[in-house]
Amino acid sequence: MATYKERQRLSFRWEGKKFDVYGYSDRELERKKTEKIEALKRNEIIVESTMPVREWAAQFVNVYKVHDMNETSLKNYQYNLNHYILENIGDVKLKNVKPVMCQSILNSHADKSQSLIHKLKITMTEMFEKAVENDLISKNPAKSITEPKGTKGTRRALTAREEEAFLIAARKHDHGLLFMFMWGCGCRPSEAENICGRDIQTIDGRLYLHIRGTKTKASDRYVPIPDEVAAMLPKHPDPFKPVVRTSEGNKISARRQRGSWKHMEYLMNIELGCKTYRNQLIPPYPLADDLCSYCLRHTYCTNLARRGVDLRTAQKLMGHASIRMTAEIYSHVTVDDLAADFDKITGNKTRKEAEISLEKMQKVVTAS
Predict the structure, then answer these.
(1) Where in the chain are the domains?
(2) Which of 62, 146, 197, 319 falls between 20 and 30 A from 51, CA-CA?
(3) Which of helix, strand or coil describes residue 321?
(4) Residues 6 or more apart from 343 whose CB is under 8 A from it?
(5) Which residues are CB-neighbours of 97 under 8 A, at least 6 positions away?
């Protein structure tokens, strides 16, 4: 029976500096030691277990992540890595990172969203696993850490009143079309900012939007363009430039989007009856403070459900990799939905129809 061999470490010095190699046998250790010495002689960049986590993280991102992510995803990835992980263990030597340190990072963010906590765990697990593969450390300190419960974000659809205010405000907003792409075509914010003239296509006399999503394979999709969105499209958009641009002609960045949404909230508040003084809103604000631009995409999916679009079709239109994500939105029942079917749910509609039928019958009898 084969026996499990513990991974071993061999330390040696080169020009006064300590280096480590890892292996499962003396022969493997000696081979790796020789290879590393030859690399040192060639002045190659050497990554070592004694380097700070911050330095390894930079090389990890540059080698394993830069070429697999779009610009927006990479910026978000690096922000989470720097802000939540490296602020805590960035200056710790790679070989000194312990599981308790990684677990403490997750625990310290237990009040954050489940999504963020999961991303932090995946980032640490991948980063340290690559360190193991590169013989920098013998074990992955993040391999067995557990995720605290966290909070579950609540994204919702706009109410009928909010949706009406949004459609009016969007026509007054300089970047209203950007948000209309989210509301009427189900674009993610990062997808909406990248829509170019070539993505607006007429097929068999009908207008479609080619959403070149990159988040998953399902993200690349075609969706019909509703009349409300079509009415705001430029007549002759540049095929290779974003349809919605800044006054300088640049793409609407994620940061500029946040500012644009603030202005959208301002306009919507006014449409909902909020008073102003010297262009400043006067409390109370009628627009709910839980509304965000992503709610427009949620509204798109909810509207598909209300119109009777089947779940599989909705999944494709949303660009969801899993039908479970679409089903979660489809399962949300709002007060507006209940109000629309109130009589049907309570049976009032049936009773009213019976009363009307009885009245008609009585009139017929009386007339005869």
Answers:
(1) 1-37, 47-152, 160-332, 334-368
(2) 146
(3) coil
(4) 349, 352
(5) 53, 89, 128, 137, 141
Position 359 confidence tier, pLDDT thresholds 50, 70, 90: low
Domain at 47-152, CATH homologous superfamily? Tyrosine recombinase, N-terminal domain (1.10.150.130)
Say if residue 349's pLDDT is above 60. Answer: no
Q: Show Cβ contacts of residue 183 under 8 Å, excluding neighbours closer than 6 positions.
A: 166, 167, 170, 229, 296, 297, 299, 300
What tokens does 342 get? 């109130």
Distance CA 248, CA 322 (A): 39
What span, in angstroms and rounded, lies between the C-alpha atoms of 30 and 120?
36
CB proximity list for 176: less than 8 A, separation 6 or greater: 169, 170, 232, 264
* Amino acid of residue 143: K
- Structure token digits, residue 85: 């992980």
CA–CA dist 332, 322 (Å, integer): 17
Which residue type occupies 112?
K
Residue 105 has pLDDT above 80, yes or no: yes
For helices 114-133 and 99-107, give the axis angle rounded to 10 degrees.
Answer: 160
The pTM for the full model equals 0.64
Confidence band for 365, pLDDT divided at 50, 70 and 90: very low
Q: Phi, psi (5° rounding) for residue 210? A: -90, 110
Distance between CA atoms of residues 234 and 236, nearest Å: 6
